[in-house]
Amino acid sequence: MDAGLTPAQAADALGLPMPGSGPYTPNLIRRHYLRRAVRVHPDKCRDPGAVQEFQRLKAAHDLLLSRAVGDAHSAAEAAASADLLSTFLRAMTGKLRDASLEAELASLGVYRPPEAFGVDLAIRFQGADGGRGPEESADAKAALRDVFAQQGVPWEEEEGGAKAGTGGDGREASNEDAAW
């Protein structure tokens, strides 16, 4: 099999119009392949070069078909991702209610994971502390303070909570400070 075929050579082998004249659909590729393959199939054609020509046609068919199916699959995947992202953003901004969110996710083929995964999707983020109690908020602040200390980022307490990323002189940290 000739694995070194370019798409242009593959199109020429199958008798397809040159690339750029339009996308090749799987049906078009198959139709052109079958027309040519019948003529050079080793069982039908006694020519000594028929086996190599048939293998070349098969390689051309496989190359163009994989590209055509791959392009269609990539486009469908991108559209599905965009739909899911749009749904996610509307849900995060509160523009979708629970019932409509469930229905929209189901229409996209996305379902909630089973409880066995350990993800409780019923928990909602509420308020500045994310719906956590004071003990959990204190634990989260302590954990963040430790991470900031390990990274060398200053941490200051404010009246309403913690303020990270300020210098010792009270100025906001610059982009250069935040990078390290």
Automatic annotation (TrEMBL):
Q: Which InterPro entries does this entry report, sorted A to Z?
A: DnaJ_domain, J_dom_sf
Ranges where the J domain occurs: 9-69
Chain positions covered by the region annotation Disordered: 150-180
SMART domains this protein is in? DnaJ
* A Pfam family: DnaJ
Q: Out of the domains of life, which is the source?
A: Eukaryota
Q: What is this protein called?
A: J domain-containing protein
